[in-house]
Amino acid sequence: AHILHVDMDAFFASVELLDRPDLRHRPVIVGRREPRAVVTTANYSARQYGVHSAMPVATALRLCPTAVVIPPRHHLYRQYSQRVMDLLRSYTPRIEPVSVDEAWMDVSGSHRLFGGTGRIAAEIRRRMRDDVALTCSIGAAPPKFGAKLASGRAKPDGLLIVNAGEGAGFLAPLPVGALAGVGEHTRAALHRLGIETVGQLREISPARLQRSLGAAQAAVLVERASGRQQAEVAAARVERSIGKETAVPVDETDPERLRAVLVGLADRSAAALRAADLLTRTVVLKLRDGAFRTITRSVTLPAPTATTQELIDAAQDLLTRSGWDRPTRLIGVRFASLVPTASGLARDPIWGAASQWRAVDAVADRI
Question: Is 223 among the residues known to form the active site?
Answer without folding.
Answer: no
